[in-house]
Amino acid sequence: MRNFEYQKADSVNAAVSAHAGQPSSFVAGGTTLLDLVKIDIMQPERVVDVNGLPLYDVEELDDGRLKIGAMVSNTDLAYHPKVVDQYAVLSEALLSGASTSLRNKATTGGNVMQRVRCPYFRDGVSACNKREPGSGCAAIGGHNRSVHAVLGTSDKCIASHPSDMCVAMAAIGATVLVSGPNGEREIDFLDFHLLPGDSPEKEHALEADELITHVVLDAPIKGSRSTYLKLRDRASYQFALASSGVIIATDGNTIRDARIAMGGVGTKPWRAREAEQALIGQPATEASFKKAAEIAFKGATPYEHNAFKIPLGQQAVVRSLTNATAA
Fold first, then answer.
1. How many CA atoms lie within 13 A of 299 on its CB side?
2. What is the spatial distance between Cα 264 and Cα 241, in angstroms, rounded to a whole number?
3. Per-residue pLDDT of the chain (327 residues; tens, 9 = 90+)
4. Angle between the 286-296 and 309-325 helix axes, to the nearest 10 degrees?
5. Is 105 contained in some domain?
6. Which part of the chain is the FAD-binding PCMH-type domain (predicted)?
7. Checking DSSP bridges between strand 24-27 and strand 46-49, what pairing results, if any?
8. DSSP code of 235?
9. CA dihedral 318, 322, 325, 327 (to 10 degrees)
10. Which domain holds residue 319?
11. Between the CA atoms of 307, 231, 123 and 154, what dihedral angle is there, to the nearest 10 degrees?
């Protein structure tokens, strides 16, 4: 463990000010940050504690959107009545992730910032462009089965994004509110996480001195149903091999609106817009769902050990759409 300065903030402005001027990290639940500090992957000179910030509320806005404070725990969000009733896909995604004790500590803002679980990133010695730009990607020629992607990859990085919560939020649609030295700004959730491209070390659209204060979910689609399906090697405490968060609205048996997002298969929470469009106006049948699932994986790039994720991910999409439209 390297030495670092610890500072506790009691306001958003104080947190932003404390973060500026030297390599720093915000800490809330610490379920990711402290692990990465212990294994020397992250090396902040200052850690700014944001647990005292007034960001623990979940508020329904006048336009029907839901504003979630960055400090709301995964457990509190999963069981919030509005989330359970109107955003089932999010509640189910949160409850499928980690253990109860981790969900009690993990926060909304921290989950959005969750970093990859690629073992080559975390071992501290393997070639990893995300950890050490220009060093290479050991996963491409190494073992790349469970936590590596088939969508959105590049020749610089193939690590999959690990969050379940973010997949659900990608399906719902959301805005990330951030605060920094230049004031507040909004980032569309689908633009927040970045593809690796040639710069996998740049993981998100947040500037180094900005703090997430809220996530605002889009208003629910009228008459819709939603669900989250997570496929993994074992039933508990495991990251997704493939997951699917869907929202679907029908008029009779005809699909009026659809949202599809996928996890475990993409380098970021993956929204399948073309597949969604293919469903609109179609009957809510297995044939329609299978066609959409095939479209969702168009352009996927399999690697030596994870080619199975393409049919598995397609099955996840079909099953979740079937579950969401079941009588």
1. 10
2. 5
3. 689 999 999 999 999 999 887 889 999 999 999 999 999 999 999 999 999 999 999 999 999 999 999 999 999 999 999 999 999 999 999 999 989 999 999 999 999 999 999 999 999 999 999 999 999 999 999 999 999 999 999 999 999 999 999 999 999 999 999 999 999 999 999 999 999 999 999 999 999 899 999 999 999 999 999 999 999 999 888 999 999 999 999 999 999 999 999 999 999 999 999 999 999 999 999 999 999 999 999 999 999 999 999 999 999 999 999 999 996
4. 140
5. no
6. 1-222
7. parallel
8. S
9. 180
10. 224-325
11. 40
Distance from chain centroid for Cα 277: 22
Here the tokens at position 111 are 């989950």
Residue 85 included in any domain: no
Q: Cα(109)–Cα(297) distance, rounded to whole angstroms?
A: 29
Q: Distance (Å, rounded) from C-alpha 317 to C-alpha 294?
A: 9
Task: Please identify which residue in the block is written with the tokens 């809330």.
Answer: 28
Q: What is the CATH number of the domain that holds 276?
A: 3.30.390.50
Q: Which of 245, 276, 45 is nearest to 161 (CA)?
A: 245
Chain centroid to Cα 297, Å, comes to 18
Contacts of 64 (CB under 8 A, 6+ apart): 219, 220
CB 206 within 8 Å of CB 178: yes
| Structure tokens that stand for 142 in this block | 């190494």
Q: How many other CB atoms are there within 10 angstroms of residue 175's CB atom? A: 18
Q: Edge-to-edge strand order for the sheet containing 211-217?
A: 58-60, 66-69, 211-217, 174-180, 183-188
Identify the helix (H) or strand (E) that includes residue 100: helix 100-105
Selection from 319, 290, 314, 291 nearest residue 302 by Cα: 314
Q: Which two tokens stand for residue 169?
A: 């939020």
Residue 244 · residue 212 · CB < 8 Å: no
Count up the domains in the chain and report the number. 1
Token match 């189910």: residue? 92
Identity of residue 143 = H
Residue 197: inside a domain, yes or no?
Answer: no
C-alpha torsion sign, points 176, 179, 181, 182: positive
